[in-house]
Specification:
By secondary structure, the chain is mostly beta strands. The strands form two sheets. Strands 2, 3, 4, 5, 6, 7, 9, 10, 11, 12, 13 and 14 form a twelve-stranded mixed β-sheet that branches. Strands 1-8 form a two-stranded parallel sheet. Strand 4 and strand 5 form a beta hairpin. The chain is globular and about 50 Å long. Bound molecules: 1.7.6 4-methylpyrimidine-2-sulfonamide and zinc ion (ZN). The site of 1.7.6 4-methylpyrimidine-2-sulfonamide has 6 residues, from strand 9. The site of zinc ion has 4 residues, from strand 7.
């Protein structure tokens, strides 16, 4: 099937849907100003239960590399947190920079991290398909995890080892090993950060980053290409969207 987002998600939207016009009122990413975030005591802990055997394959979609999961059942889901329903894991991917000074999509007090992981989930309780959920305000939930440089990350290495092959078939991979155990998160109503940019995402941004070592980010992520075989090589770097205006939104925190 075509891996071109524009084919999968044409930017032109149903005129009636107010959610999918970029330049809308809830675009992502944003800068999270820690002191402006509001503690919400009613926010529940996020419940994450992934079945590693739902892992399918890793591939390069021209925007990032992503690991896709079998989302035909409720085997890998998240619930609780700011969410009304449970959401099914569909894929995870990363955003990174050409150098360690930047790379994340969200910033915290205007600080960039070298990379950011996005675990994308969709509301299969309410919507029949992912494609439909993409167009609805409560359709998606994306967990954002910042990567900072530090000690080697064993779980990430499994992915890094597969990158050269990129078409690498995965047997099992449990993405919860990439999520910090600290339960603290920020949450806000936002959008997808690559086309179709629809305003359908409940963002859950973990407060604590995970630590990865220099080689894991630099060697691995920056060896990937935007271009396909035979084209003039363009390294896949700086695949993050510029910050978007907060407009009339409040970022809530699950912690004081
Ligand atoms: C599945 C998908 C498509 C577009 N953008 C995103 S993202 N970067 O907002 O997680 N995810
Ligand atoms: Zn993303």
């Amino acid at each position: 099937e075509s891996h071109d987002w524009n084919v999968l998600f044409p930017l032109t939207s149903h005129a009636s849907s107010p959610l999918s016009i970029p330049g809308g009122t809830r675009q992502s990413p944003i800068n999270i100003q820690w002191r402006d975030s509001v503690y919400d005591p009613f926010l529940k802990p996020l419940k994450i239960s992934y079945d590693p055997s739902t892992c399918l394959h890793i591939w390069n979609n021209g925007y990032s590399f992503l690991v896709e999961f079998d989302d035909s059942t409720d085997k890998s889901i998240i619930m609780g947190g700011p969410l009304e329903n449970q959401y099914r894991l569909k894929q995870f991917h990363f955003h990174w920079g050409a150098i360690n000074e930047w790379g994340s999509e969200h910033t915290v007090d205007s600080k960039f991290y070298p990379a950011e992981l996005h675990l994308v989930h969709w509301n299969a309780v309410v919507y029949p398909t992912f494609e439909e959920a993409v167009m609805e305000g409560n359709g998606l939930a994306v967990i954002g995890v910042f990567l900072k440089l530090g000690k080697h990350h064993e779980g990430l290495q499994t992915l890094v080892d597969a990158l050269p092959a990129i078409k690498h078939k995965f047997d099992v991979f449990d993405p919860s090993c990439l999520i910090p155990s600290c339960p603290d998160y920020w949450t806000y109503a936002g959008s997808l950060t690559t086309p179709p940019l629809t305003e359908s995402v409940t963002w859950i941004i973990k407060k604590k980053p995970i630590e990865v070592d220099e080689n894991q980010v630099s060697f691995a992520f920056r060896m990937l290409l935007f271009t396909s075989d035979g084209e003039e090589e363009k390294r896949m770097v700086d695949n993050f969207r510029p910050l978007q205006p907060l407009m009339d939104r409040t970022v809530r925190s699950s912690f004081q």
